[in-house]
């Protein structure tokens, strides 16, 4: 189910950008709060079919377009989600000390390559 929420969110964001709409503009057209729409685009909001319909109308598209899997961004989002799930499952049996060590190492690497 999480993948579907991610797919719809990425598609909303990409179609909104293609139509040169800001989140604020689309939210206003749909009668939604901007922060709510932002959560939908990030895949952290599990929306109702009524809300999906409002967004599709606001984007002036058929709602089925929000479920398309063709976008390269969708494929990247799914791959990232799968990698995060693998990483999370790998960390489940590690101690708090090991996890903190890994976080510190990751932070050092990210700081080095900023």
Provide a descriptive summary of the structure in words.
This protein has 114 residues and is an all-alpha fold. The model has no long low-confidence stretch (mean pLDDT 88). The chain has helices at residues 2-18, 23-30, 34-42, 49-59, 72-91, 96-112.
List keywords for this structure.
single chain, about 110 residues, mainly alpha, about 70% helix, about 0% strand
Number of helices: 6
- Low-confidence stretches are none
Number of strands: 0
Proportion of residues in helical segments: over 70%
Largest sheet: none
What is the N-to-C succession of helices and strands?
A: HHHHHH
Q: What is the average per-residue confidence, as pLDDT, rounded to a whole number?
A: 88
Secondary-structure class: mainly alpha
Amino-to-carboxy terminus distance: 34 Å
Question: What is this entry, summarized?
Answer:
This protein has helices at residues 2-18, 23-30, 34-42, 49-59, 72-91, 96-112. With 114 residues, it is mostly helical.
Secondary-structure map:
Elements: H1 2-18, H2 23-30, H3 34-42, H4 49-59, H5 72-91, H6 96-112
């Amino acid at each position: 189910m999480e993948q579907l929420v991610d797919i719809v969110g990425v598609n909303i964001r990409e179609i909104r950008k293609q139509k040169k709409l800001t989140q604020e503009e689309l939210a206003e057209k749909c009668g939604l709060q901007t922060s709510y729409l932002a959560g939908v685009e990030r895949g952290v909001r599990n929306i109702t079919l009524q809300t999906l319909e409002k967004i599709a109308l606001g984007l002036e598209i058929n709602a089925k377009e929000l479920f398309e899997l063709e976008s390269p961004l969708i494929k990247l989002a799914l791959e990232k989600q799968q990698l995060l799930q693998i990483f999370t499952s790998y960390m489940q049996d590690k101690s708090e000390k090991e996890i903190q060590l890994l976080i510190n190492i990751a932070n050092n690497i990210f700081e080095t390559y900023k």
